[in-house]
Design brief:
Length: 396
């Protein structure tokens, strides 16, 4: 296998790199940092940035052209992702729409839904949130209890969702609801699209251990949703939901994020003195960096194998589950190494003037711990890989 980019792909990389160097905002946004405040002013700046990326032709490159994409192979999208991380470009505020619900609608949505929702996903006119988890229905998602009864041409939704990222500023939600309470739990579920401005929706932010309010509880009290907002067939939403979960797990296990974290860890180690020398010269910590780099490189090559499968039209199998399991745990281990490198300074919050690296690592350590749980816990991922991939007996 030739792991090198072709001359045409390298030329595309230079084109993307030059565009980013000329267009990344010089102030107002904080690049990769996950803890950038999402106030109204910041949200608008992030929307403007996404529109700029879209207008330049660097957004959703693999989407079909009729839906606003570039119909390019996945390699070009991978190059754009790498360059966005390299330059610490601002995050895409509509990432959940671009990476999760958009691809799901392209596969499962009808023509009316594609025409209605896909363009506004790309232009950040509509920001999406995910209505999956509920109290008591997290890893066992199929046990969800939020009801949607059909009344005429509408669904009437009642129930609660929890850990709903971005619900406090989202315009739309892609949501799983139970439409047949008598069916087996993996059946009788439907996938619907809900306008977050609908009467009867209440959003309550949840304060995380990071101090942020990115997650939310969402309550539905007789919320009316048009039946045309059903994606796929009635009571067969579990198949649609799995398509979205596949995209979510790929997103959570992103190797570009992992590479950025490792590079930042190396920079921290080089600048941190211990025993009169930088940590990069300490034999014990150097060995730890080497072990982590081996894992970072392994995830990269695993992703390249998936990229090859995608180009050749092969089924990726359980690759997304492996991505999520390995990627989120590795990211947390990178943050743990950084915390140990900083010693007592690791206790300082991001707002403390004495915090190292602007307090990035304590925040990242807490945030990545949450991602080990979110999108299906590591235990659940291991069970899926073991049972479906290795054909081992089901756990009891």
């Amino acid at each position: 296998m030739d792991l090198n980019y072709t001359p045409e792909e390298e030329a595309f990389r230079r084109q993307v790199r030059n565009w980013l160097d000329e267009n990344i905002p010089t102030s107002g946004l904080r690049g990769f940092d996950r803890n950038a405040d999402r106030d109204k002013s910041t949200l608008e700046k992030m929307k403007i940035w996404q529109r700029r990326v879209h207008q330049a032709g660097y957004l959703a490159l693999s989407w079909p052209k009729e839906y606003g994409g570039q119909a390019m192979d996945p390699v070009r999208q991978s190059i754009v992702n790498e360059e966005m991380v390299r330059t610490r470009a601002p995050a895409l505020i509509g990432a959940m729409g671009i990476s999760m619900v958009g691809p799901t609608l392209i596969t499962w949505g009808n023509d009316e839904q594609k025409a209605r929702y896909l363009p506004k996903i790309l232009t950040a006119e509509e920001i999406w949130c995910q209505g999956y988890s509920e109290p008591g229905s997290g890893s066992d998602l199929a046990s969800l209890r939020t009801r949607a009864e059909i009344v005429g041409d509408e669904f009437v939704v009642n129930g609660q969702k929890v850990w709903t990222s971005n619900a406090h500023f989202a315009d739309m939600m892609f949501c799983l609801v139970r439409t047949d309470p008598d069916a087996p739990k993996h059946r009788g579920i439907s996938y619907i699209l809900i306008d977050m401005k609908s009467p009867g929706i209440t959003v309550k932010p949840l304060v995380q251990m990071t101090g942020d309010r990115g997650f939310n509880e969402v309550f539905f009290d007789n919320v009316r949703v048009p039946r045309r907002n059903l994606v796929g067939k009635l009571n067969e939403g579990w198949m649609v939901a799995n398509a979205t979960l596949f995209h979510e797990r790929n997103m959570l296990g992103s190797t570009t994020t992992t590479q950025m974290l490792f590079n930042r860890l190396k920079t921290l180690a080089a600048a941190t003195m211990r025993g009169g020398r930088p940590l990069t010269e300490d034999p014990v910590f150097r060995q730890r960096l080497a072990d982590l780099e081996i894992r970072v490189e392994a995830t990269k090559y695993h992703m390249l194998r998936q990229l090859t499968d995608s180009i050749r039209g092969r089924n990726p199998g359980l690759g997304a589950w492996v991505n999520k399991l390995v990627g989120t745990e590795l990211n947390h281990d990178l943050a743990t190494a950084a915390m140990e490198a900083m010693g007592d300074y690791a206790m300082l919050a991001r707002d403390d003037g004495h915090a190292m690296d602007r307090g990035f690592w304590p925040y990242e350590w807490m945030f990545t711990l949450g991602l080990v749980i979110g999108g299906g816990t590591s235990h659940i991922q291991k069970n899926i890989i073991a049972e479906r991939g290795l054909k081992l007996p089901k756990s009891r």
